[in-house]
Fold these 2 entries.
Entry 1:
Amino acid sequence: MIPTITAFKNAPDRGRGLARDMRVRWALEEVEQPYQVRLLTFSEMKQPAHLALQPFGQIPTYEEGDLALFESGAIILHIAQRHAGLLPQDQNARARAMTWMFTAAGTIEPVIVERETAQYSESDKDWFAQRQPLVDERVRAHLTILSRHLGNADWLDGDFSAADLVMVSALLRLKSSGILEEFPNLSPYTTRAASRPAYQRAFAAQLAVFKGAQAC
Ligand code: GTB
């Protein structure tokens, strides 16, 4: 059965692949699962039909037959459990990969999102300049630990897994900040992941939506 995901009709990131449908597309591409996309305007995302799928009125969602999921991490975990290629077969290695997936979504990404939110919603406040270094330091503190864990390895724990997919998706949100480059192994880590053919296919697909919307 071909799943359907939802994505922005008019992506606010202008096709930079930062919205969270990108990571779901990437996961589906990694396991070579074809998928369909239903594009939504901001207003459609807040209508009852979408709220029944995603109570917070956000993208992405995932529908496959009777199953409807929201929350990108849960969707990626579902894809990784149903298809080979995103989680190791060995049960302990699988549990470790899931641990790093949750670390990416629950520990690393929140400090990155906090920084991003401060940039676009607080930069006009008179206390912004005082607070920004504190927010940046929290990001650096988390990346220091991540960088130490990654060391010279290509991936977080053995082969590429859903953990790397979620972690890199979070780290790429820092691309224009310059912070990633302070960690000599993290920038190459994101480049290595983004060079994967599955990432490239997912990126091209979401960019095509943005370009299509521009042409209308
Ligand atoms: N925890 C949820 C998940 O992982 O699925 C979070 C989903 C989420 O934040 N969705 C956002 C959304 O639907 C899009 S991705 N927002 C609309 C709303 O809340 O009304 C977050 C996002 C948005 C924009 C950019 N950007 O412009 O760069 C980047 C990321």
Note: Residues 12-13, 18-20, 45, 57-60, 71-73 surround S-(P-nitrobenzyl)glutathione (CB under 6 Å).
Entry 2:
Amino acid sequence: MSILSGKHILLGVTGSIAGYKAADLASKLAQAGAQVDVILTGAGQKFITPLTLQSVTGRRAYTDDDLWGNEAHVLHVSFGKTADLLVIAPCTANTIAKLAHGIADNLLTVTALAATCPILIAPAMDGGMFDHPATQENLSTLLSRGVLVAGPASGHLASGLSGKGRMVEPAEIFGHIRLALGKNGKLAGKKVVVTAGGTQEAIDPVRVITNHSSGKQGYALAQAALDSGADVCLITAPTALTPPVGARVVNVSSVQQMLEAVLAESADALIMAAAAADFRPAQIAKDKLKKRDGIPQVQLKAAPDILKTVAGSGADAKRFKVVVGFAAESQSLLENAAEKLKSKKLDFIVANDISADDAGFAVETNRATLLFADGLREAMPLMTKTEVAEKIIEHISKLLE
Ligand code: PMT
């Protein structure tokens, strides 16, 4: 994950049962290439040990003992100056209160006061504590200072009660971290619309015609755009995927709904990674077709071509400065892609051979060739869909310069 590689993340862990999840978050960050320095409060150590955390980060974990150690006078300052982001997960009501009031009575809060980097907190406490006016006032103080807040979620709490106060899952905190680190990326201030997944064209209330698109390539594009600081709208057909944190999600199912959702947007770039239907049932049966009535003959008719509709929506109503399409082909890949590049008036098209077993639908990798409107071509080797997405985002940011 290029956005995290080489980044210095400070991870504060305070005294909540959710502390055990800090190991998972620390592991995700380390595996993504970040340098993670953990700071455990005294209460935090009640729930998870420094040894556990340093085992996943490969770096020593710091505690209040280090506050009074011989390097103490520089530790919090050096941390505060070198970190790209200070994450406090879980973040208790007590630590929220200390941050709000500038209390600095342990290594974590001293570091927070010295930090010049952004701060992201993931609150974790019992429901009643989160709703308490004191906590709410402290949170709004932090928000007013630009502190980023992930969650909390509502759900089962350690006390057996359920309510708002549960720390969001590490994967979601990870998404917020990417969002924070990507803020000033090359697409900062730009808006990108991405479509993903395979549309579903109804035959009757129960049955649809669809395709094998899993949405992976589209979701990777949305994540890569977020990593570059873009404001992202993800228009998605049904998938089994979790949308990237920070994307505004518009759920659609049919190609008609996708068309309407695309036309409702205007943005710096549109990336049509979705497998939208080319044809659909001529009519949708009002009731479920019954076997006893014999084998139904399903007549098909043309579906609206979203990219052609966008292209035809007139230069004046230029909804999208840059338009990128995909070509999913099983034969004469480049010829078909070149034809679509022209007929859909694209800035460039991503040609991918969906007959290969390591590219195209549902797999983690893709093999794509980019064909540009000016005739240039860029054949890319097999790579992950994340890497393909990052390449596409790079080209889009160049075209928007
Ligand atoms: O989702 P995954 O499992 O990760 O698989 C990724 C993918 C193979 C779906 C993706 O890489 C891809 O190729 N998406 C485009 C699939 C497709 O519909 O290609 P096409 O050649 O049929 O369409 C050409 C272009 O026109 C595409 O940008 C498509 O979004 C667009 N289109 C298609 C139909 C339609 N009615 N309107 C459109 O705008």
Note: Residues 385-400 form the longest helix (16 residues).
